[in-house]
Amino acid sequence: MAFFTHHICRGLSSSAVRHVVIKHVTIIGGGQMGAGIAQVAASTGHAVTLVDTNEDILKKAVKGIEGNLKRVVKKKFADKPEAGEEFLQKAMQNVSISTDAGSVVQGTDLVVEAIVENLKVKQDLFGGLDKVAPAHTIFASNTSSLSITDIASSTSRLDRFGGLHFFNPVPVMRLVEVIATSSTSQETFDSLLNFSKMLGKTSVSCKDTPGFIVNRLLLPYILDAVRMYERGDGSKEDIDIAMKLGCGYPMGPFELSDYVGLDTMKFIMDGWSAANPDNPMFAQSEVLNKLVAEGKFGKKTGEGFYKY
Ligand code: CAA
């Protein structure tokens, strides 16, 4: 694994922008989000190492990335098949896999974590990586609902720690939420903004508050739809059609829940409802709890609100 040097860029305007140029990215977690981030980073010219403890997951992720890129190439390079092949080869050459995070981060500029939504597991991971990663390496979490400040607390690089929250499917969704904690340095924040731009994404920022912008608004909306269905106010099919045709949303709340994963949604809501037990917006849903208890997590398990 090559080591990369620390580059500082200065903008030409009076408000000088300093940021670390991200050449090599380590993405921890070979699930849907990690693989999606890896795909976008590799196809925008970054060297990417995708890390997971399970080699089979990594192999599946690489296969998925290649399949997705082939689809992109077919459409984008329809008239130039040779250029398309070159793009595909280059992007795939940018992707490597590893089950050893400790050795990979020794040569990386940025670590993006996209593992299970469990604070202790994330803290343990980052605490360990902090000891072996070079001083300039920036750490970022793709957490959907946990506090970046809490995750960062297991490291000694609070100034080089932030949030980079992507959306599913990562290659299609154009947004990244970039989160600075009260300890994140301006240079780190600018580096994360610049990296998001390099990925071709539009970024927004908000404070390190639960759910950031999107999930804080999206989850209560989805849960309200589930409560309408529980009360029998409307069928899930009609609620989905209503929000698609009445609001122009690409998916209705039940389709989107199945797509995001009911387990993920429940995890987020459980955290918020424990922290705000008196807020009806975060109240438990019997239907959601039952589906999750039955292992019906949505599209990924073949059944959620709908069957697949
Ligand atoms: N990877 C890469 N590309 C994909 C893809 C994937 N997994 N899924 C779809 N695409 C591409 C397709 O190739 C297609 O590309 P072109 O437009 O170039 O042809 C395009 O996306 C549209 O796909 P489809 O025609 O297959 O299907 P669609 O039009 O029904 O769109 C969708 C599918 C993009 C998922 C759309 O339904 C959608 O935008 N849904 C809402 C998704 C959403 O809200 N995501 C955010 C969830 S919240 C979250 O992620 C945060 C969290 O922390 C929980």
UniProtKB/TrEMBL annotation:
One of its GO terms (biological process) is spermatogenesis. Its EC number is 1.1.1.35. Residues 24-209 form the 3-hydroxyacyl-CoA dehydrogenase NAD binding domain. It catalyses: (3S)-hydroxyhexadecanoyl-CoA + NAD(+) = 3-oxohexadecanoyl-CoA + NADH + H(+); (3S)-3-hydroxybutanoyl-CoA + NAD(+) = acetoacetyl-CoA + NADH + H(+); (3S)-hydroxydecanoyl-CoA + NAD(+) = 3-oxodecanoyl-CoA + NADH + H(+); a (3S)-3-hydroxyacyl-CoA + NAD(+) = a 3-oxoacyl-CoA + NADH + H(+). It comes from the Eukaryota. It is found in: Mitochondrion matrix. InterPro entries: 3-OHacyl-CoA_DH, 3-OHacyl-CoA_DH_CS, 3-OHacyl-CoA_DH_NAD-bd, 3HC_DH_C, 6-PGluconate_DH-like_C_sf, 6PGD_dom2, Mito_3-hydroxyacyl-CoA_DH, NAD(P)-bd_dom_sf. The record marks H165 as: Important for catalytic activity. It is an enzyme of class 1 (oxidoreductase). SUPFAM superfamilies: 6-phosphogluconate dehydrogenase C-terminal domain-like, NAD(P)-binding Rossmann-fold domains. GO terms for molecular function: (3S)-3-hydroxyacyl-CoA dehydrogenase (NAD+) activity. Keywords: Acetylation, Differentiation, Fatty acid metabolism, Hydroxylation, Lipid metabolism, Mitochondrion, NAD, Oxidoreductase, Spermatogenesis, Transit peptide. NAD(+) binds at G29, G30, G31, Q32, M33, G34, D52, E117, K122, S144, N168, K300. Gene3D superfamilies: N-(1-d-carboxylethyl)-l-norvaline Dehydrogenase, domain 2, NAD(P)-binding Rossmann-like Domain. Residues 211-308 form the 3-hydroxyacyl-CoA dehydrogenase C-terminal domain. One of its GO terms (cellular component) is mitochondrial matrix. Pathway: Lipid metabolism; fatty acid beta-oxidation. Mitochondrial fatty acid beta-oxidation enzyme that catalyzes the third step of the beta-oxidation cycle for medium and short-chain 3-hydroxy fatty acyl-CoAs (C4 to C10). Plays a role in the control of insulin secretion by inhibiting the activation of glutamate dehydrogenase 1 (GLUD1), an enzyme that has an important role in regulating amino acid-induced insulin secretion. Plays a role in the maintenance of normal spermatogenesis through the reduction of fatty acid accumulation in the testes. Belongs to the 3-hydroxyacyl-CoA dehydrogenase family. Homodimer. Interacts with GLUD1; this interaction inhibits the activation of glutamate dehydrogenase 1 (GLUD1). PANTHER family: HYDROXYACYL-COENZYME A DEHYDROGENASE, MITOCHONDRIAL, PTHR43561. This is Hydroxyacyl-coenzyme A dehydrogenase, mitochondrial. It comes from Pagothenia borchgrevinki. The lineage of its organism: Eukaryota, Metazoa, Chordata, Craniata, Vertebrata.
